[in-house]
From TrEMBL:
InterPro entries: Bact_Lucif_Oxidored, CmoO-like, Luciferase-like_dom, Luciferase-like_sf. GO terms for cellular component: cytosol. It holds the Pfam family Bac_luciferase. This is LLM class flavin-dependent oxidoreductase. Transmembrane segments: none annotated. One of its GO terms (molecular function) is oxidoreductase activity, acting on paired donors, with incorporation or reduction of molecular oxygen. It comes from Variovorax gossypii. Residues 17-299 form the Luciferase-like domain. To bacterial alkanal monooxygenase alpha and beta chains. Gene3D superfamilies: Luciferase-like domain (3.20.20.30). NCBIfam families: oxido_grp_1 (TIGR03558).
Length: 337
């Protein structure tokens, strides 16, 4: 079956480069993605990580929208636990007014950083108003502010988010569980399964089926993929990609890039009794044709109509080449010479 390709960009900073160069590459890569027929270009949110420049994806999205003309641009995603749903709704109403029909609002549940960055982001929040608040409640409030506002009886009833864009942003929940899939479906949101964080095939199948049972369609599937001129070169550049899931006694679980980051997360959270679980994220790596064949198989198996590609290689030239190779393998006849 046919499917679309999209990109998720963390604005990685290679060794020897800086954030300004990373953002220049993000803009250049988005322009190439538009030229090559990619459907969406999403910007990730990470805090306190010197390897990623993208700490304010909604700001970066505005710049990328101004530098492109057709491709959809959005967030993958805004970490809603840190922010007022009302303010997020206003920011994306502004973006949708600046670029009607091209804006995606992707929302995530993860903190996007270590406990001290979360504390700094939430420093002026009133703990009494958010303590124990369910993520689904906050997402429902955001959805309401994107539409007509919160129903009567709520403390914020009557608050109206502005401006009114010609077309609201497309709303997407990024998650890795059947529960997130059902939440997205029941709010009328698109769902993107985060396969680059949770590639377990059983969980993937259950999440896809949960969303399909509610909506009649498959979710988007985000995953790691990288293409090079040869299979050997792709494998060399990707390397032995690993991540570590830290489990705290509070019940919180977070994915971190290294054991050192996991230990630092636990230290900042004020706990010493924690457990780490090493994971080896699945990466589809090879030539453009090899990656295409693997995506074809996933599309056929699960009915996926759109893949969101996260490229796990930092080098600017290598990332750009991968985007070109994937596009040309996917639909060679549709691309400009």
């Amino acid at each position: 079956m046919s499917y679309s390709l999209s990109l998720l960009d963390k604005s990685l900073i290679p060794e020897g480069a800086d954030a300004a160069q990373a953002f220049q590459h993000t803009v250049s890569l988005a322009q190439s993605a538009e030229r090559l027929g990619y459907r969406r270009y999403w910007l990730a949110e990470h805090h306190g990580n010197r390897n990623y420049a993208g700490s304010a994806p909604e700001v970066l999205a505005a710049h990328v929208l101004a530098k492109t003309s057709r491709i959809r641009v959005g967030t993958g995603g805004v970490m809603l636990q840190h922010y007022s749903p009302f303010k997020v709704a206003e920011a994306f109403r502004v973006l949708a007014s600046l670029a009607p029909g091209r804006v995606d609002l992707g929302i995530g549940k993860a903190p996007g950083g270590l406990p001290l960055t979360s504390k700094a982001l939430q420093w002026l929040h009133d703990p009494a108003k958010t303590k124990g608040e369910d993520f689904g409640v906050r997402l429902s409030e955001l959805d309401a502010f994107l539409h007509e506002g919160i129903a009567s009886g709520h403390a914020l009833a009557g608050a109206v988010a502005t401006p009114n864009p010609p077309q609201l942003p497309q709303r997407v929940l990024l998650g890795g569980s059947p529960e997130s899939a059902v939440l997205a479906a029941r709010l009328g949101w698109q769902f993107a399964y985060a396969g680059h964080f949770n590639g377990d095939p059983v969980n993937l199948a259950r999440s896809i089926e949960a969303y399909r049972a509610e909506t009649g369609r498959a979710p988007l599937l985000a995953l790691f993929a990288f293409a090079a001129e040869t299979h050997e070169k792709a494998a060399e550049l990707v390397g032995a990609l690993r991540s570590f899931r830290v489990h705290l006694p509070t019940g919180q679980s977070v994915n971190l890039p290294s054991l050192e980051a996991a230990a630092e997360f636990a230290r900042q959270a004020g706990v010493s009794d924690y457990r780490t679980e090493e994971r080896r994220p699945h990466v589809i790596a090879g030539t453009g044709e090899e990656v295409r064949d693997a995506l074809d198989a996933l599309s056929e198996q699960y009915g996926i109509e759109e893949f969101v590609i996260d490229i796990p290689v930092a080098g600017f030239a290598e990332r750009h080449a991968s985007v070109e190779l994937l596009a040309r393998a996917h639909e060679p006849a549709a691309l400009p010479a």
